[in-house]
Every structure is written in structure tokens, then in C-alpha cells.
Amino acid sequence: MAGRLEGKAAVITGAGRGIGEAIARAFVREGARVAIAERDETNGQAVAASLAGEDRRAIFVRCDVADPEAAKASVAASLSQFGRLDILVNNAGVNVFHAPLETDADEWRRCFAINLEGAWRMAKAALPAMLASGSGSVINIASAHSFSIIPGCFPYPVAKHGLLGLTRALGVEYAAQGVRVNAIAPGYVETQIALDYWNTFPDPAAERQRAYDLHPPKRIGRPDEVAMTAVFLASDEAPFINAACIVIDGGRSVLYHD
Ligand SMILES: NC(=O)c1ccc[n+]([C@@H]2O[C@H](COP(=O)([O-])OP(=O)(O)OC[C@H]3O[C@@H](n4cnc5c(N)ncnc54)[C@H](O)[C@@H]3O)[C@@H](O)[C@H]2O)c1
């Protein structure tokens, strides 16, 4: 049976580990060819090598999304390797968490350069090829922080709220030309970031359990669960889903706290 993304080519930023890696693996499993656009060369190369196969289904492209030239070059590399570009996943992101008044200008800029401008830069580089072919799917990995504020996490939620705005603006602008732009907003997902965070506590296991207990299913999300939704949005199964955001948080955001 043909894969759900057979024949399509994708650029996925930050696909060297975590959610981006899971998306790359799911995309290849569904028949896509993928460019791993990653700033960490070791991880990026390793993921690309494990997925490439004999027909070079995956390539590594060194890319810091904060660098305007690297964003353009990674789209160009994927176009020259695969001859087309159908899907862009803006997944690269970093937690920049401070109290607002303790956020210096460099930290503010770093947060926006990667989490928001990086997505715009990649979209700006990728959209011309999608518009030329008359179809495309851009998927922005937003966050629960696109809707809610946790004190002390500034300015990450400001950038993630902006990423939702970017999704809506581009989705409306290019829909008539066949390009859909959507977002996925994961809640707490078990990646290295979560493990590192729990390890900052004297009892990491207790902190992990505390995170699990915040969620109605009594666990947190898995990277492959975000990847399954990315496959759906990237596929031809979601032709009228545009400028939308799918929340994946096990229901945490609607849980009423008394
Ligand atoms: N893990 C969660 O709980 C969670 C929840 C909601 C949203 N998210 C979002 O999902 C995305 C992936 O998160 P993750 O948990 O997999 O993180 P992660 O840190 O495990 O992986 C992020 C990857 O992006 C790469 N990266 C970082 N900055 C980059 C840059 N400037 N250019 C290119 N690559 C860069 C890193 O090298 C890394 O491989 C992020 O946008 C994050 O904000 C994560």
C-alpha cells in the first residue's frame, strides 16, 4: 500500500532529535523524502544516515534557522536533491524562560530569532517553490504556550503566540494558490528538554510524576504522537484544514482546576 506521503518532499527544521526527529521518521515511513535541517551536525547527520536508505530518502542540511542565508540554502539543497518541495515543518525551537524584567536584550532576540523569525525565514524561502507547483503544506510547531502563560517562562510564550499569528496570516494569504499553513500546539512532551528539566530537581522521578498528574490521561505526550498529527496535516487527508491549530495535550488545557 502506498504511503500517505508518497512522492512528497519535506524540509523539517530541528529534526536531529525530539519531536522533529519523530516527524522525520514518520514522514519517511509514509513514503516522503526529507531534508533534516538541523543546527546540531552530529545529531542531524545521524538521523539522516539512519533514514537515508539506498535511494537517499533523507539528507542532512546544516541549518541554523536564525541565519537568513542558512534558511535559504537548506531549502535550495532540498530542492536540488529531491527536485520538489511539498512540506515545510518549522519545528526548531528553544525554551527561553525568564522573569520578564530579568530578560535582557540578547535573550529576547535569541528567543524571537529562532522561535518566530526562523519560521518566517524558512517559510519565505520555501513558499515560492510551493506556489510555483500550486500546492504545499507548512506546519508550524507551536505550543500550549501559544495560548496560555506560565509565569517565569518569558518571552517564549510571546514568540509562540506570534507563531500562531504567522500561521493564520500565511494560511489566509496563500490558500487560493493551493498552500495550506497550519500549526500543532503540543503540551508537555517527553523529550530531552523534559528529562533535563526533571534532572534539575532533587527528586527527578517525583517531578516526572508531578508532570504526569497534571494531565487527564496521567501521562505526558510522546514525540510520535505529535508526528502522527504532522503526517495528517502534511497529507492529502486534510485538504480543507488551513490556518488552524491542533492542540495535542491530553486535555490538560480544558481541565478545570478548583
Ligand atoms: N517538548 C515539549 O514539551 C514541547 C511542547 C510544546 C512545544 N514544543 C516545541 O516543539 C519543538 C521541538 O521541541 P523538542 O522538545 O523536540 O526540543 P529538542 O530540544 O529536543 O529538539 C529541538 C531540536 O531543534 C534544534 N535546533 C534548536 N535551535 C535550532 C536552530 N536555531 N536551527 C536549527 N535547529 C535548531 C536542536 O538542535 C534540536 O535538535 C520546539 O519548537 C518546541 O518549542 C515542545
SSE topology string? EHEHEHEEHEEHEHHHE
Measure the end-to-end span. 49 Å
The CATH superfamily of the largest domain is identified as NAD(P)-binding Rossmann-like Domain
Q: Output the CATH class name of the largest domain.
A: Alpha Beta
CATH A-level architecture of the largest domain: 3-Layer(aba) Sandwich
What low-confidence regions span 5 or more consecutive residues with pLDDT below 50? Answer: none
Counting DSSP H or I runs of 4 or more residues, the number of helices is: 8
Tally of separate domains: 2
**What value does the average pLDDT take?**
96
Number of strands: 9
Q: Would you kindly provide a written description of the structure presented here, covering whatever features stand out?
A:
- It is a single chain.
- By secondary structure, the protein is an alpha/beta fold.
- It has 2 domains: 9-186 and 222-248, NAD(P)-binding Rossmann-like Domain (Rossmann fold); 191-220, no CATH class.
- It contains 8 helices and 9 strands.
- The protein has helices at 18-29, 41-52, 68-82, 105-133, 156-174, 192-198, 204-213, 223-234; strands at residues 9-13, 33-38, 58-62, 87-90, 97-98, 136-141, 154-155, 179-186, 245-248.
- The protein has a 7-stranded parallel β-sheet, sandwiched between helices. The protein has a two-stranded antiparallel ribbon with strand order 5-7.
- The relative contact order is 0.14.
- The model has no long low-confidence stretch (mean pLDDT 96).
- Bound molecules: nicotinamide-adenine-dinucleotide.
- Residues 13-14, 16-20, 38-40, 43, 63-66, 91-94, 114, 118, 141, 143, 186, 188-189, 191-194 line the site of nicotinamide-adenine-dinucleotide.
